[in-house]
Amino acid sequence: MATDQILANAVEDARAAAGDVSEYGIGEHLGFYLEADRVGTHMFQALEPGYTGWHWAVTIARSPRSRKATISEIELLPGRGALLAPPWLPWAERLRPGDVGPGDVLPLQVDDHRLVQGYEQTDDVEADRIAIYELGLGRARVLSPDGRAEAFTRWYEGEHGPTAESARKATAPCSTCGFFMKMSGSARRIFGVCANEWSPSDGKVVSLDHGCGAHSETDVPERSNEWDQSDPVIDEGDLELIELHPRSAPVPEDFDDDAAAPSEETEPAVVDETEDAAAPSEEPEPAVVGATDDAAAPSEEPEPAVAGEAENHGS
């Protein structure tokens, strides 16, 4: 298609129109191309933050035999390498496992490949009663073989399968644990439910070869001592017996050991006979007899408390 020179030369008109829309100015002119007869688009670099690789597209046109271009539309378009938002997905397709919380309701998926048609009622009342009430087939849809396979794979490769960290460190598998409850149906050969409240898998579907530290038949390994403790040895021959005495008062420096040393038997105090003869005490001493009486006539009963009064008197 031949280039329309009138439209191609209207660069400044297109730039001014884009400047009226942009808040951050207009970058350099990137080019021009014809959309149709007498219709073309000028492209300018976008300077908006976060829009790297985007450009302003200003479409202009002119009427037949007119030599003036008019602005048709202005829009911001992505170029090569531009940062784009992910493709839009319906809400039902954006949900992932684990997104459903309390009170949330998933939309109905009529063509879910994981489900197949369940038992359908017939005109035979007895056959319907047996199927619905006795066999429990009153569900509209049941798991398909693909649905069971996906569930088994997800459980086996998850955190309650044999590759979990607790299973690799366990000393015994769940298949030998007393808290392991087997499932019914085809899952019985691979899975069961843990019923041990002390296990991190309590109430969860676990594989037969899963394991944890709460196994019913395992115990804590005995730890060996870091040294061998021997019986204590008491050597009484090396003991030195020390007799402890009560602590006495401090002894002055001018203390005479000979004068202060007491006799083995404590003697009662004896009053000097000379002092008694010259000046008797105000109170008579019952244990001491006067020196004159002792010389004239000895006492009928000896005084045990006074020793050798006659000898002392004679001397």
Question: Overview of this structure, please?
Answer:
By secondary structure, the chain is an alpha+beta fold. Among the domains are: 74 residues; 32 residues, no CATH class; 63 residues, no CATH class. The protein is 21% helix and 17% strand. The protein has 10 helices and 9 strands. The strands form 3 sheets. Strands 1-2-3-4 form a 4-stranded antiparallel β-sheet, covered by helices on one side. β7 and β8 form a beta hairpin. The protein is flat, with a radius of gyration of 60 Å.
Basic shape? flat
Work out the radius of gyration.
Answer: 60 Å
The tally of helices reads 10
Strand tally, please? 9
Largest sheet: 4 strands, antiparallel
Residue runs with pLDDT of under 50 for 5 or more positions: 270-281, 287-299, 305-315
Assign a percent range to the helix content.
10-25%
User: What do the pLDDT scores average to?
Assistant: 76
Q: What structural class results from the helix and strand content?
A: alpha+beta
Q: What descriptors fit this protein?
A:
17% strand, 10 helices, single chain, 315 residues, 4-stranded antiparallel beta sheet, 3-stranded antiparallel beta sheet, alpha+beta
Q: What's the short story on this structure?
A:
The chain is of the alpha+beta class. The protein has helices at residues 5-8, 11-19, 91-94, 125-134, 145-156, 165-169, 257-260, 273-278, 291-296, 309-314; strands at 26-36, 39-46, 54-61, 70-78, 115-117, 141-143, 180-182, 191-194, 205-207.
